Structures are given as C-alpha cells and as structure tokens.
Amino acid sequence: MPSSVSDVAEDLGGLLGETVPALEAIGEEASLQTRGPGTWSRKQILGHLVDSALNNVQRFVRAQHSADLFLLDYDQPAWVAASGYQDRPWTDVIALWAVLNVHLVHVIARIPAAALETPCRIGDSEPMALEFIVRDYVRHLRHHLQQIQDPEASRGKTHPPFK
Fold first, then answer.
1. In angstroms, rounded to a whole number, what is the distance separating the alpha carbons of residues 52 and 59?
2. What is the per-residue pLDDT across 52-89, written as a single tens digit (0 to 9) for each?
3. CB-CB contact of 151 with 35 (8 Å)
4. Where are the domains of the chain?
5. Which of 2, 21, 35, 45 meets the CB 3.0–4.6 Å disulfide criterion with 6?
6. Which CATH superfamily is domain 6-154 in?
C-alpha cells in the first residue's frame, strides 16, 4: 500500500533531478558568495540542508515507532560551523546533499499511512503530525534552494519557521 505522502517522495525525487545540475553549474567560486553581511554563503546554505536531511531522517524513522515523539531541536549555525562546509569542495557538499535526499525519497515513500498522524514535538514547538513535518521538509528545502539559485530574489525573505 503506497504511503499517503508518496506525492512528497515523488516531488522530492523530481526536485533532485532538476536541482543537482543547477547546483553543479554554480561552481566553486560562486558557491562562496553570501546574500549580504552576516548571511551564509551558498555552500553553507546547502550544508544547512545537509544538516536538515540528517535531522529529518531521524524524525521520519523514529516517529514511525513511537506513540508520540519528542526530539531536541538543533542549533543550526553551530551545526554549519562544526561541519565546516565552507572549507569543503562545492561538489562534495552537493554530492552529500543529493545522496541524503535520495535516501529520504526512499524513507518517505515507505512511511505507513497510520504513522502520519504521530504527534511530534521538536524542541519547544507545539506537537505537529509527522505528515506536516514530512511535507514541511520539502517546503523548507525549496526555500533554501531558491536562496542558493537566485540570491537576489530571495534577499530579505525570512527563514521558514520550521527546520
């Protein structure tokens, strides 16, 4: 029986297919650009998306085996700094992001429909259904990919509330 979030898995798979070549076209030098003082570079934003994938795969799997789930939030700037994405080759960060999201496509497609209502609390957030978190993952991903692909268009836009 297909998951009721199989559309999300398909959307994410399609997004990967179109985004990886676009990211590769940016190149190393341009990956170091920021959107302004105090903002992450394109490379650091993609690194943040690596961290998001790592955190969300745990959320998606653990929520399937819990009546309700509580997980600590993560300090996004600390994760980006600790991982040193700025010092990694752009192609390595792309490859890591892509392979983690290929795995997430597989994980999302396998989530049983019955697990999608599992209440999940992350940090001090109100409980959210697993389905919301799964769908929000791709929304969050799209937001940051726009920042990478078109920094001028995304200048001044606020970060989505969920990570």
1. 10
2. 999 999 999 999 999 999 999 999 999 999 999 999 99
3. yes
4. 6-154
5. 2
6. dinb family like domain (1.20.120.450)
